[in-house]
Amino acid sequence: MLVLSRKVGETIWIGEDVEIFISEVKGEQVKIGIRAPRNIEVVRGELRQDVSASNIEAIVKNIELLKNTKK
Questions:
Q1: Which pLDDT belongs to residue 36?
Q2: CA 27 to CA 53: how far, in whole Å?
Q3: SUPFAM superfamilies recorded for this chain (predicted)?
Q4: If you write DSSP's letter for every residue of 19-48 in order, what string do you get?
Q5: 9: nearest Cα among 20, 69, 28
Q6: pLDDT digit string (tens) for 20-59?
Q7: pLDDT value for 71
Q8: Is the whole model's pTM more than 0.70, yes or no?
Q9: Which of 9, 36, 37, 58 has the greatest number of CB atoms lying within 10 Å of its CB?
Q10: CA distances from 37 to 12, 14, 40, 44, 62 (A)
């Protein structure tokens, strides 16, 4: 893992196409901006975890339904 320190107005580039910039720092909250091509999906970490948990729950329910229909 790479950890970088940045000040307001400074940027970080990922590859040639993705720019992350620090727009504001207030106490423990940092506001960032992301410039990326439209074909690159940008999702907050907590949303990705929620979707993953929901997908696992759905798979488990489907497996249980399949087991019950085979009886």
A1: 95
A2: 31
A3: CsrA-like
A4: EEEEEEEETTEEEEEEE--TTS----HHHH
A5: 20
A6: 999 999 999 999 999 999 999 888 888 877 676 676 777 7
A7: 61
A8: no
A9: 36
A10: 15, 12, 6, 17, 36
Give the residue extent of every domain in the chain: 1-40, 42-71
Single-letter amino acid code for the residue at 4: L
Confidence of residue 70 (pLDDT cuts 50, 70, 90): low
Which residue, 7, 30, 32, 29, is CA-closest to 19? 32
| Cβ within 8 Å of residue 31, ≥6 positions away | 22, 23, 24, 25
Both tokens assigned to 15: 């590859």
Residue with structure tokens 């950890």? 3
Distance of alpha carbon 54 from the chain centroid: 15
